[in-house]
Amino acid sequence: MSTLQTVATGSAVGGFLPLLTAVVQRPHWSAQAKQLVAVAVALVAGVVTVISSGGLSQFQDGWLSAGTLGAVVAASQAAYDLIWKPSSLAPAIESATTPTKASATK
After folding, report:
1. What is the DSSP letter of 84?
2. Counting Cβ atoms within 10 Å, is residue 16 exposed (0-12), middle (13-18) or buried (19+)?
3. pTM of the predicted protein model
């Protein structure tokens, strides 16, 4: 797989990743905690993307793997800041998936 293909694949995954990350995050978390979770999820998604794009042998080429990981992280951060946060969709998902105190005590 070429560098351009890996970056394109990583960017596509990263573009929609904030919506999945919002399921895990909670509105009451600090901005730093949310960012750490987002980056960790993006790195895991990047590894999965590398494996699904070229199998485990893809890790033999460090530049391609690093390019894919970087593309996922960068695209996810950019997509969140430019699309999902201003549209209020990601924050709405966070709120909707946060357990209420009543259900947490049962």
Report:
1. I
2. middle
3. 0.82
Asked if 72 and 45 count as a contact pair (C-beta separation under 8 A), the reply is: yes
**Residue type present at position 42:** A
Domain ranges of the chain: 3-96
Q: Which amino acid, one-letter code, is at 6?
A: T
Please write the tens of the pLDDT for every residue from 47-106: 998 888 777 777 777 777 888 889 999 999 999 999 999 999 998 999 999 888 755 555
Q: Residues 76, 17: contact at Cβ < 8 Å?
A: yes
Please tell me what DSSP assigns to residue 60. G
Residues in Cβ contact with 66 at an 8 Å cutoff, skipping those fewer than 6 apart: none
Computed on alpha carbons and rounded to an integer, the radius of gyration of the chain in Å comes to 16
Q: Is 88 left (phi over 0), alpha (psi -120 to 50) or beta?
A: left
What angle separates helix 62-79 from helix 31-54, to the nearest 10 degrees? Answer: 140
